[in-house]
Amino acid sequence: MVNGVIGAGIFTLPAAVALLAGPAAPAAYILCAIIMAGIVICFAEAGSRVPTSGGAYGTVEAAFGPAAGFVTGMLLLASDALASAGVAAAITDMLGAVGLHRVALLLAIYATVAGINLLPVRQTTRLITAGTALKLLPLLLFVIVALAAFGVPPPPGPPASAVTLGGLGRAMILTQFAYSGLETPICASGEIRNPAHTLPRALFLAMLFILVLYIVVQVGAQHLLGAGLSHSTKPLADGAARISPLAGYILFAGAGVSMLIYLTSDVLGMSRLLFAFGRDRRLPSWLGRLHRRTHVPVNAVAIYVSVAFLLAIYGNFLDLVSQSTLAVIGVYALVCVAALRLRQRDVRLAGVPLDFPGLKWAAFVGLAGMAAMVAAAKPVEIAWLVGVSAASLAAHAITVRARAASVGG
């Protein structure tokens, strides 16, 4: 759980969250942790009843049918493509690239990421694993620097502006992005020994560790940079540099490595979902083709990387991450309802299910939190979410009709 959650976002998010919520930024992390706990319990319940490696896509399809499952999968694809573009945009911001230099840098980033993902999957996963093992070290270094700096006065600056409910809501959308991925290991809950005891304990310990780390990072960044935090493109590196220039360089390099590893891992996972849709003829069949020698879904990799690249060119970190979170909010809401539906129907395809005693309350917390974040979103973002869902339903209907016509012919 910890490995799935802590990735690239936390190196940039403190500045954006401070811009929206000011001194109340830590509260956004706490509220999102509570909401995410309810959502993960629903994932655990649904995963223990439906033995699928498809995660949200598989459980929603089992509860409500192929159309709902397809919409869920498309929302996941949209969310991850936007998140990938947001992280890539953050790299260009960190390096101060603008104009054509920014486009060239984005092209180089995605060409590198695509090249790694065109290698045989074993080589790609080895590179990702090696990079993943290093990603926590810069964050732990920042925690040490931040704790050591609490005796150092923050830099002078104007007083923080008053916190508004709308600003806190927007900040929660961003902190929700920081917790994304917590549900992924839960998808294998049907294969976990004694899940009724193991999952709640793992959830509590992981959430506690992640929450403490995020709050220490946020509070530390606010203390080290003061009013300048909201305007920093590399907040952890800039904060650490106030205490030690060497620590600043290490944080800067660590953030870059973590972001590149995230982008590479994201393409590895999402290109396979795109490939599966092509293989199952739910999207154009050429997406489901494999390279003869490497067995890599080359077309799916190329399309996914191209979409993320174009989104990164025309978007910025804050807007892209907000839209990404809105898409995944739709997925989380569907899973919360699916968990209730699967229990109501007493679906138990993986033996004895989790049967979490507080499932209804967990679903209520998750759904209420998702509704609050949608209410805090911009109208254009809500329209985009509705548009993606409607387009997915239309694509599913066209595919079903095409299949029926081919069978009839």
Q: Could you describe the 3D structure shown?
A:
The protein is mostly helical and 409 residues long. Helices cover 74% and strands 0% of the residues. The protein has 16 helices and no strands. α5 packs across α13, α9 (165-179) crosses α15 and α12 crosses α13. The longest helix has 35 residues, at 245-279. The relative contact order is 0.21. The model has no long low-confidence stretch (mean pLDDT 86).
Short description:
The chain has 409 residues and is mainly alpha-helical. The protein contains 16 helices and no strands.
Percent of residues in helices comes to over 70%
Q: Give the number of DSSP strands.
A: 0
First-to-last CA distance: 49 Å
- How many whole angstroms does the radius of gyration measure? 21 Å
Q: Can you tell me the overall shape? A: globular
Order of helices and strands: HHHHHHHHHHHHHHHH
Mean pLDDT: 86
Which stretches are low in confidence, meaning pLDDT under 50 for 5 or more residues running? none
Strand content: under 5%
Query: In this structure, how is the largest beta sheet organized?
Result: none
Secondary-structure class: mainly alpha
Q: Number of helical runs?
A: 16
